[in-house]
Specification:
It is found in: Mitochondrion inner membrane; Peroxisome. The protein folds into three domains: 51 residues, no CATH class; 190 residues, FAD/NAD(P)-binding domain; 215 residues, FAD/NAD(P)-binding domain (3-Layer(bba) Sandwich). Strand 12, helix 12 and strand 13 form a beta-alpha-beta unit. 33% of the residues lie in helices and 21% in strands. The strands form seven sheets. The chain has a seven-stranded mixed beta sheet with strand order 7-6-5-2-1-8-20. The longest helix is centred in the middle third of the chain and has 21 residues. It is an alpha/beta fold. It contains 16 helices and 24 strands.
Length: 502
Amino acid sequence: MAWFRNLIQVSATTKPFIKPRNKKNPFPFPITQLFGLAPFSSEAINEAPQVNECSNLGPTKPGEKPRVVVLGTGWAGSRLMKGLDPKIYDIVCVSPRNHMVFTPLLASTCVGTLEFRSVAEPVGRIQPAISKEPGSYFFLSKCTSIDTDDHVVQCETITDGVRTLDPWKFKISYDKLVIALGAEALTFGIHGVKDNAIFLREVHHAQEIRRKLLLNLMLSDVPGISEEEKSRLLHCVVVGGGPTGVEFSGELSDFIMKDVRLRYAHVKDYIHVTLIEANEILSSFDVRLRRYATNQLTKSGVRLVRGTVKDVKAQKIILNDGTEVPYGLLVWSTGVGPSTFVKSLELPKAPAGRIGIDEWLRVPSVQDVYAIGDCSGFLESTGKQVLPALAQVAERQGKYLAELLNKIGTTGGGHANCAQDIDYGNPFEYRHLGSMASVGSYKALVDLRQSKEGKGLSLAGFFSWFIWRSAYLTRVVSWRNRFYVAINWATTFVFGRDISRI
């Protein structure tokens, strides 16, 4: 056994083959505290306050690359990080999620048409510098406050209820700050929405919808369940007739027609979908396309109800006219508005409470702060209308701002308070590329006109569905996810959707 003893000695004396990203400071935070990995010992607890005193990213020094701090990993923030030049800037991203969600295809994951990973793009793949460069980082945290005078953001780690130490608080100094925090679902102050409805904006929302849907299907097949309870459990109600609500209703009707009726024969006649909208569904499309969508959804078994919700209870919703609608699954998709945190920021505000910006996406009255995406809107003084909360708006703003910041960095204005005299060039201009929406049964709407009254391509049907899928496949961020999406579509077409409840 001499060879074994020698092997142990060599292993004990050999240094691990791991190169730190920064030899002087491998990580600017106590990593065990940041990710909740610290051992539960008295020594570790006693040492924690001492580490906390220096656990910040301080201001950059002369000769160092300036630091861009990006808040958010939505369409705007992700496109910005993709376009930033890591040779010019250190890039630090702060977000409660470590991925971007390809929201146009999120509804497809709820019923098993696509896998969840097919619509989630890791931040490290979008901007590799975050994983490789010494001064660039991603922090799974939320921003709690912004000090625009000292160029500092206060952050707090996300623990998701895991049994770890308390959330870790830290500060990050910035040279340039980009607020891309998106928006949150509107509830219009209706009682019970947050407690009983499921929103459809994140991957975990889609996972919850899928689990609830399949659970209700299996529970409704249990002996002894009354007819009334079966109908309630298998009644899927969608509130909101925008693109997300309509596409989810279409996906759900396809799932019912092609998979539920085949695999849940005992309860197939009980499951149904109701779409509730206060006005017209798909109001951004013209009358002809809206009428086509209405007819197609009705033909697929979706019941359309025009009305507004007054109250939401655990098993039923009450409309303003007094109608009670029992449900087993309630999905809320009624548009978005600025988050509570965005409203609380002491920054100029655009209409509807968004962060006010000028033509170059800057936040006036403060230095080196920009806002893009759904959380921002043009100030009235610019003479421009607030742009709609669309993915293509956010993506275009992210691309524009990345090019602008790269230009500022190359001309010597990258550091804090150094860009006052730089020519910013042409302001941001948005040109609408059109709208698309799937309505199920291999049918979709495509409107590539600048407005409902303008000239251009406007069609509906199977060919539109082919254009819809082709366009979204090309817009998926990486080749990896494009491959996933294409394979998922192919396997679903051949073998049907997966109905396993995992």
